[in-house]
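Input (structure):
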């Protein structure tokens, strides 16, 4: 008997809730439609200007993090990340030109300097060998990006 009462209760609750749920769903759909109608259309941007601004912002960030790394207040990964971002923005801003290759070459040069610095620190015992592998990887990565870009432009 108790099972029957329990099932009956569930059925009654379901009968009462289904219309309420349907009403709420319709109201939600209407509200979303009004939101879409009142939405501000996305702003179009000038892609060339955007790319140049990205390049400028990445360069500024790189310079900040390099100085902070020198001061001991940033980690080397920040220096790499912002050098990479600077290179990437330069590639976007100069797609298919010699300036795209120059952006990669500049990144490679920055990574080579960072690696040489890490190597000198390792030789006097400041860093452990895995730290040297990290910067060596970044140099190899930049070399590969440069070679791939040069091949693509031939």
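Output (sequence):
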């Amino acid at each position: 008997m108790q099972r029957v009462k329990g099932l009956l209760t569930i059925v009654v609750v379901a009968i009462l809730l289904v219309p309420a749920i349907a009403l709420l769903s319709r109201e939600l759909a209407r509200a979303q439609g009004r939101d879409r109608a009142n939405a501000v259309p996305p702003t179009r941007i000038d892609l060339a200007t955007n790319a140049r601004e990205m390049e400028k912002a990445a360069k500024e960030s790189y310079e900040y993090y390099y100085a902070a790394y020198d001061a001991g207040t940033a980690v080397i990964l920040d220096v790499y990340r912002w050098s990479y971002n600077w290179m990437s923005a330069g590639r976007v801003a100069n797609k298919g030109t010699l300036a795209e290759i120059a952006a990669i070459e500049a990144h490679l040069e920055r990574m080579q300097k960072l690696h040489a610095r890490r190597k000198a620190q390792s030789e006097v015992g400041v860093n452990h060998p895995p730290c040297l592998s990290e910067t060596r990887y970044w140099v190899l990565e930049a070399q590969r990006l440069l070679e791939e870009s040069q091949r693509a432009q031939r």
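Notes: The helical segments are 2-38, 47-71, 76-93, 98-123, 129-153. The chain has two domains: 1-39, 47-153.
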